[in-house]
């Protein structure tokens, strides 16, 4: 029986490309927003959600982290890293010499990944943020009479019949995004077409208030056990200025000794710790096309 995978839609988003590599044989369920994807799992409408969490150029997708921490507590069951190539596209009716867009549409992260391009080529043209790159492409395809453009991937251009006017408009060639897999149950990745990168464990740590050297002591608990950290990020607790929690990625699977020992040590310091997930990491090595 195939699983239902909620993803940031519509068809042909970067998330869709990641899903097609990780779950080639499952049923895809496009959703309009990241919270909609996570809610679909929480409410049992979907088995799995795949949503973006971090981009190499722009940093974290805060809505994903915040929604999982503050709204819906579902475990992370996997991650996949994929290369991202952004293209500038218009409706074929507008693909004429001298075309100048009135507005450029895309996902906020895509706009941020192309700031230098936008500043150089289209200075002063307003950019409008929409829910995904494919949503921008779809919108442009539905309004042939308007002088508008989208920044999206090649598959979106194909899917929505747009003409790519300029390829590879992202500002740095190393442009990768990490997507997470969330599900109530552990996930079977049979059939995935990606590379295995080992296991990770993600922890959420709240420091005790007003405790000098607390962060140093937290890091020491990992350091003397020789636990390799690949990410540490702070996000506001939303309870007051200066109140932050930390998201920490440890480069190993949850074991019975080292990670539980670290957590006990952190708790003895007065920290609150929760495990957001222990999961396999995957990578897509080449820019993906569907199929
Ligand atoms: O909008 C999309 O296509 C997404 O999947 C989110 C996103 C946006 C920009 C880079 C990577 C993922």
TrEMBL record:
InterPro entries given in the database record: ACT-like_dom_sf, ACT_dom, Chor_mutase/pphenate_deHydtase, Preph_deHydtase, Preph_deHydtase_CS
EC number: 4.2.1.51
Gene Ontology cellular-component annotations: cytoplasm
Xref: SUPFAM superfamilies: ACT-like, Periplasmic binding protein-like II
Class in the EC hierarchy, top level: lyase
PROSITE patterns per UniProt: ACT, PREPHENATE_DEHYDR_2, PREPHENATE_DEHYDR_3
GO MF term set: prephenate dehydratase activity
Keywords, sorted A to Z: Amino-acid biosynthesis, Aromatic amino acid biosynthesis, Lyase, Phenylalanine biosynthesis
Catalysed reactions, as listed in the record: prephenate + H(+) = 3-phenylpyruvate + CO2 + H2O
Top-level taxon: Bacteria
Domain (Prephenate dehydratase): residue spans on this chain: 4-184
Domain ACT: 203-280
Gene Ontology BP term (one): L-phenylalanine biosynthetic process
Site (Essential for prephenate dehydratase activity): residue numbering on this chain: 177
Xref: PANTHER family: PREPHENATE DEHYDRATASE P PROTEIN, PREPHENATE DEHYDRATASE-RELATED
Name of the molecule in the record: Prephenate dehydratase
């Amino acid at each position: 029986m195939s699983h239902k995978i909620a993803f940031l839609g519509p068809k042909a988003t970067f998330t869709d490309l990641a899903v097609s590599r990780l779950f080639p044989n499952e049923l895809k369920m496009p959703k309009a927003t990241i919270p909609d994807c996570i809610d679909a799992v929480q409410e049992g409408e979907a088995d799995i959600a795949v949503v973006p969490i971090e981009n190499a150029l722009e940093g974290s997708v805060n809505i994903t982290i915040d929604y999982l921490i503050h709204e819906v507590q579902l475990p992370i069951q996997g991650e996949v890293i994929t290369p991202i190539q952004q293209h500038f596209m218009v409706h074929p009716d507008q693909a004429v010499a001298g075309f100048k867009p009135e507005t450029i549409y895309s996902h906020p992260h895509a706009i941020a990944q192309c700031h230098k391009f936008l500043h150089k080529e289209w200075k002063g043209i307003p950019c409008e943020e929409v829910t995904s790159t494919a949503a921008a492409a779809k919108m442009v395809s539905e309004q042939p009479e308007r002088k508008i453009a989208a920044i999206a991937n090649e598959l979106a251009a194909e899917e929505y019949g747009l003409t790519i006017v300029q390829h590879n408009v992202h500002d740095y060639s190393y442009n990768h995004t990490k997507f997470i897999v969330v599900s109530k149950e552990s996930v079977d990745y049979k059939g995935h077409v990606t590379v295995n990168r080992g296991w990770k464990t993600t922890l959420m740590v709240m420091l005790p208030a007003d405790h000098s050297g607390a962060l140093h002591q937290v890091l020491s608990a990992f350091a003397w056990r020789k636990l390799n950290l690949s990410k540490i990020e702070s996000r506001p607790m939303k309870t007051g200025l200066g109140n932050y929690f930390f998201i920490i990625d440890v480069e190993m699977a949850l074991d019975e000794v080292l990670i539980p020992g670290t957590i006990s040590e952190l708790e003895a310091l007065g920290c609150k710790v929760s495990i957001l997930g222990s999961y396999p990491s995957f990578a897509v090595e080449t820019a993906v096309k569907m199929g």
